[in-house]
Amino acid sequence: MQVIEIKGQIRNDLGKKGAREARKQEMIPCVMYGAKEVVHFTTTPSVVKDLVYTPDFKVAEVEVEGKKFKCILKDKQFHPVTDAIQHLDFLMLIEGHPIKVDVPIRFKGVSPGVKSGGKLVQKLRTAKIKALPEKLVDEVTVDISKLEMGQSIRVREIEPGEGIEILNSPGVPIATIEIPRALRSAQQAAAAAEKKK
Questions:
Q1: Rounded-to-integer distance, Cα 100 and Cα 66, Å
Q2: Under 8 Å CB-to-CB from 189, ≥6 apart: which residues?
Q3: 96 Ramachandran zone, left/alpha/beta (phi>0; psi -120 to 50)
Q4: SS3 of residue 194 by DSSP
Q5: Where are the alpha helices (DSSP H) in the chain?
Q6: What is the pLDDT of residues 48-61, one digit of tens each?
Q7: Which pTM does this prediction carry?
């Protein structure tokens, strides 16, 4: 599990005016919430870029006034024109309290269908999982080594690992091995020729 360290400064001036002031100083207003406390702080764009601009799931360790909090990024807001980060919401990870997160789906193995000329088309890129913070994983894997041309692999075939519950519907397709048009035409022509015999 990759952990991104973030140093933050406490933010006392809350509300829109305070947030505007923070952005003027090239700082990002952030809020971190969890069990009973809410922490408002600011941080710099360079510190959070590896957490915000990535398809990977990462945990943040936020340090504010000497206190460290393990968190996940819950929400991010961007400027509609400049795409600059406007605000970040963090959720504290509390031991013993399960959490729901989206993690990337990765494939393992080589599909015989791809070897035969088919194309692997991924339909679902992330899986929603529920786990205790200490059991969290940064990805789930699915084995495609038996996937032939024209076949699909579904959520029920994900190997989640101990203490992890997959929340997506089991029948949802993750990936399909598509038959290329040229190959499909050749198969149809062969079938038609076989009928004529």
A1: 28
A2: none
A3: left
A4: helix
A5: 15-24, 45-52, 112-115, 181-196
A6: 888 888 888 899 99
A7: 0.77
